[in-house]
Specification:
Mean pLDDT: 88
Distance between the termini: 36 Å
Number of helices: 12
Number of strands: 5
Structural class: alpha/beta
Low-confidence stretches: none
Helix content: 40-55%
Largest sheet: 5 strands, mixed
């Protein structure tokens, strides 16, 4: 079920009848998340609803959507893969304005992606930064190809693959291909999370307690997300 108080829509309608402005209506939205811990809980609860087929699919009425013109207040920024099978807001059962999502193949930290995360941390005051990989990631799989095959890819794609390759160094020998792929994706998540945590804006926000940086692994088959929240889980 939705986390939005049941009287929210009623208060919106009452405000409209009184001739409230969009600024006034925007101010009626309740603050659901106020800390990194609450942000993690909101994502875990939302994903639990999603994979148990109890998603609330939170949507907004027309007036609430119009009120969002006044600004946005997402509680988390999620750096995820562009894979079409990984719809981030659906996976976490979140609605309009809840998540600030950055999507790029292999969920790699490039210049544009980093700038987007920094914007969310500095100007949107998010409480959480999450790097989420997923089952069967094609970009990670490409980074595991022989060098002669990688050299045949377009230049920009090669640069993206190069950002993933360091996370695959020292990958343990695992005979099971699916298990090996999972470990490769998790290593890439840890590597990209570490790259974010090394950046001054993210590092300072984490040190101050404004945010936490975590990782995640989305299983396409089940719909469940495994959360990497402890330092041991995040260590590359």
């Amino acid at each position: 079920m939705s986390d939005t108080p049941p009287d929210y829509e009623t208060r919106i309608l009452d405000a409209i009848r009184r001739g409230a402005s969009m600024v006034d209506i925007a101010g009626l939205k309740p603050a659901r998340v106020n800390s990194p811990g609450e942000a993690i809980r909101a994502l875990k609860d939302g994903n639990a609803r999603f994979f148990s087929n109890q998603a609330s699919r939170p949507e907004l009425g027309a007036n609430e959507r119009r009120a969002q013109i006044m600004g946005q207040t997402p509680f988390a920024v999620v750096l995820a893969c562009s894979d079409s099978r990984v719809p981030v807001e659906l996976v976490f059962d979140q609605g309009f304005g809840d998540l600030f999502v950055v999507r790029v193949a292999g969920n790699v930290v490039g210049e544009a992606g980093l700038g987007t995360v920094e914007y969310a941390v500095r100007h949107l005051n998010v409480n959480l930064v999450m790097v989420m990989g997923h089952e069967g990631c094609g970009a990670v799989q490409a980074a595991m190809m022989p060098e002669e095959e990688i050299a045949q890819e377009p230049d920009a794609l090669q640069q993206l693959i190069r950002r993933i390759q360091p996370s695959l160094e020292g990958l343990p020998v695992i005979r099971d291909r699916k298990a090996r792929m999972r470990e490769a994706v998790l290593n890439n998540v840890r590597h990209q999370a570490a790259a974010l945590r090394a950046q001054p804006v993210v590092r300072d926000a984490e040190a101050s307690g404004q945010i936490r940086v975590i990782g995640g692994f989305y299983e396409i088959g089940s719909g469940a997300v495994d959360f990497l929240t402890d330092e041991d889980d995040l260590r590359p």
